[in-house]
């Protein structure tokens, strides 16, 4: 679906900003900025979950982690409270950054507010677009981040992470996650996490 010039301009600017990420990963043998790749992963999942996704949802997906490296985790206390403060500040930062870009692209305040509400996940329980975005974020975690997390996290903590992630997802996202061609250690982790969850 083509939303016109301002949509293309906004996506280009978001990608331009995320393209400044100094952290690079290999994708198809080429080094690419991580947050640029991440935003494309989220967008791809949103479109798989909802091919007719609204303009606001597509913009929110693209900008969800915009310039995330600018507020590193290590700049906050390494405590649970520090982690929660970091996450809250990140959400606000991403929303403000996306708002600036959308304003530059010519979007009205109503659209900007809608995208920012999705960035902030203001109504996860009652907003279908917000749930789709949450599903996409969780699916990116499962598809692309589990292996790295498993390398640096205790097994019991990993089980908790998977259970918490699963609880955020819709039944449709569960089906998509279980259909992923994941390496055996990751499949086993999910299987064990869900088995223990059902036994509780």
Characterize this entry briefly.
With 200 residues, the protein is mostly helical.
Global morphology: globular
Indicate the radius of gyration in whole angstroms: 17 Å
How are strands sequenced across the largest beta sheet?
1-2
Question: Could you give the order of the helices and strands?
Answer: HEEHHHHHHHH
Measured between the Cα atoms of the first and last residue, the distance is 44 Å
As a percent range, the share of strand residues is under 5%
Average of per-residue pLDDT values: 93
Largest sheet, strands/sense/barrel: 2 strands, antiparallel
Question: Care to describe what's here?
Answer:
By secondary structure, this protein is mostly helical. Helix content is 70%, strand content 4%. It has 2 domains: 1-122, no CATH class; 128-200. The chain has 9 helices and 2 strands, in the order αββαααααααα. Strand 1 and strand 2 form a beta hairpin. Helix 2 (34-49) packs antiparallel against helix 3. The protein starts with a helix and ends with a helix.
